[in-house]
Amino acid sequence: MERAANRPMRVLVADDHPMYRDALELYLMRDWPQASLTAVGSLEELDALAHRPEGQDFDLVVMDWQLPGGEGGAGMDRLDAAGIDAPVAVVTGHDDAAIAREALTRGACAFLPKTLSSVALVQMLKVVAVGGSVVPADVALRMAGALPAPVGAAPVGGSGAASDSGGLLTERECQVLEHLAGGATNKEIGRVLDLQEVTIKLHTRRILRKLGAKNRVEAVTRARDLGLLSGP
């Protein structure tokens, strides 16, 4: 969701370690002094954001992969349930290839180890805040052969764009994409998949973000080029 030029950036920090959360907030305020920060430390607190005042949307989410109250990655689903549609940077103490793959598959734009320096971390979050995708070069090297890069993403310090998004769309996103290719509206897709229209909108935005597309037509075109659609 685009941010109005006349309002401060809104950042959601979700992490259950107070010291890391406080340090992260200091890093962010150093580079974005006018930013409005909201901090939560559990899935329960994340769920409560579904009842936030209308119009108080976030522009960036920085979230620990493992939050109290559920399995790793559960926070990604809770963001959807709370109607939070913002670029997500997953921070974690485990730079495991399988976790990285799952994080990106669930819609994260970045997978960042907590061992990063404050300068490097903020630089990467700036990339995510404007719609980019990023994985530190050393992490990307350790993931080589295990993690397909998202379209348009390149490791920090690297160059070029990935040519294959295979595996980065969830099963549900693939279903929505097929209906988009057929020209169905959000309401029609929701009726077929038995989902609320707002949920279809969230899936569509994530599909566009993952494929690096500006609109539905471009997303369908890229999906066809990548062989992600079942039809011709």
From TrEMBL:
MF terms in GO: DNA binding
Boundaries of every HTH luxR-type domain copy: 162-227
Example of a GO biological process term: regulation of DNA-templated transcription
Modified residues (4-aspartylphosphate): D64
Keywords: DNA-binding, Phosphoprotein
Gene3D superfamilies: 3.40.50.2300, Winged helix-like DNA-binding domain superfamily/Winged helix DNA-binding domain
InterPro entries (alphabetical): CheY-like_superfamily, EvgA-like, NreC/VraR/RcsB-like_REC, Sig_transdc_resp-reg_C-effctor, Sig_transdc_resp-reg_receiver, Tscrpt_reg_LuxR_C, WH-like_DNA-bd_sf
Residue span(s) of domain Response regulatory: 10-129
Pfam families membership: GerE, Response_reg
Stated name of the protein: LuxR family two component transcriptional regulator
